[in-house]
Design a protein that fits this description.
Blueprint (H helix, E strand, L loop, with lengths): L3 H13 L7 H17 L4 H15 L2 H4 L4 H18 L13 E6 L6 H16 L3 E5 L5 H14 L2 E3 L7 H14 L4 E5 L8 H14 L3 E7 L6 H11 L4 E5 L9 H9 L3 E5 L7 E3 L2 H9 L1
Parallel strand pairs: 1-4, 1-5, 2-3, 2-4, 5-6, 6-7
Antiparallel strand pairs: 7-8
Bound molecules: guanosine-5'-diphosphate (GDP).
Length: 296
């Protein structure tokens, strides 16, 4: 495994050569490099601390201390721990509900909710052979409703009309009623976002959740958000019982440390990754590959 971190650790180990064997303090030095790598990848500081504490015991075990290549051994441990932390949980969408299964999309404005709603619609149509309806509860931005209409068309799903004059709850109830009467398998509900956490917005999405009883409540988060992702995730986790995360814009140049922060704070599995603006730019999240990316 050749990564920037492995190189750094190899250099550290070279400086230690001449010593009879690797010591605990050498391991501490190596862990400091791991810490730097995670911070550079924009993993939030408290999450980094927790993570390092968890790998420390393992790092002080024989696998590293007794190894001929302690740097590589440590990277191996870190990689496995990262992948295990991010990879726990069910990957695909849960549809185990009396149809229509409702999926509620939550997240800040610009995170990629609307785009992801359409991507998921396409995924459910093509991979799960479902009949899918979408609806927008974003009554504050008429453009958002139109945007959902356009991308839903691209996905080959049906779009339920809504207008800025309506209340989000009324829209959601009407869409659910329509979905029942027309035998849809899935109803995807796109919601309003704000540029920052907002009490009124949280209240509104809580009410939507209570009325719709969704089988999935997905938190959509922009991988480029970096350190801030932890605060956004905390706020949404407090408001809603999140069942999964979609990490968008992984085609950007961020190292994607937000994945670890958001996973740790919400406890919800990362189900999908957004990898382009296009309708087919959605992939099942690959924790192992992502661990490599975070470590650089
Ligand atoms: P919303 O406000 O949360 O509904 O966000 P949108 O779905 O409108 O997305 C905001 C912007 O991010 C749009 O320009 C999307 O095309 C873009 N976007 C969403 N997901 C991705 C992604 O995975 N990769 C890239 N490159 N752009 C994305």
């Amino acid at each position: 495994m050749a990564s920037a971190l492995t190189d750094k650790l190899s250099r550290l180990v070279k400086q230690m050569s001449g010593q009879a064997r690797i010591t605990e303090s050498n391991v501490q030095d190596m862990l400091r490099e791991v810490r730097m790598a995670l911070l550079e990848a924009d993993v939030a500081l408290p999450v980094v601390r927790d993570f390092i504490a968890r790998v420390k015991d393992k790092a002080l075990g024989q696998e590293v201390l007794g190894s001929l290549k302690p740097g590589q051994a440590l990277v191996g441990i870190v990689n496995r721990e990262l992948a295990a932390t991010m990879g726990e949980g069910v990957a695909d969408i849960n549809l185990a509900a009396q149809p229509p299964a409702v999926i509620l999309m939550a997240g800040l404005q610009g995170a990629g909710k609307t785009t992801t709603t359409a991507k998921l619609a396409k995924h459910l149509i093509e991979k799960r052979k479902k009949k899918v309806l979408t609806v927008s509860g974003d009554v504050y931005r008429p453009a958002a409703i139109e945007q959902l209409k356009t991308v839903t068309g691209q996905a080959g799903a049906e779009w339920f009309p809504s207008t800025p004059e309506q209340k989000p709850l009324a829209i959601a109830r009407a869409a659910l009623d329509y979905a029942r009467k027309h035998f849809f398998d899935v109803l995807l509900v796109d919601t309003a976002g704000r540029l920052a956490i907002d009490e009124a917005l949280m209240q509104e999405i809580k009410e939507l959740h209570a009325a719709l009883n969704p089988v999935e409540t997905l938190f959509v988060v922009d991988a480029m958000q970096g350190q801030d992702a932890i605060n956004t995730a905390k706020a949404f986790k407090e408001a809603l019982p999140l069942t999964g995360i979609v990490l968008t814009k992984l085609d950007g140049d961020s190292r994607g440390g937000a994945a670890l922060s958001v996973r740790q704070v919400t406890g919800a599995p990362i189900k999908f990754a957004g990898v382009s603006e296009k309708i087919d730019g959605l992939e099942v999240f690959d924790a192992e590959r992502h661990a490599g990316r975070i470590l650089g």
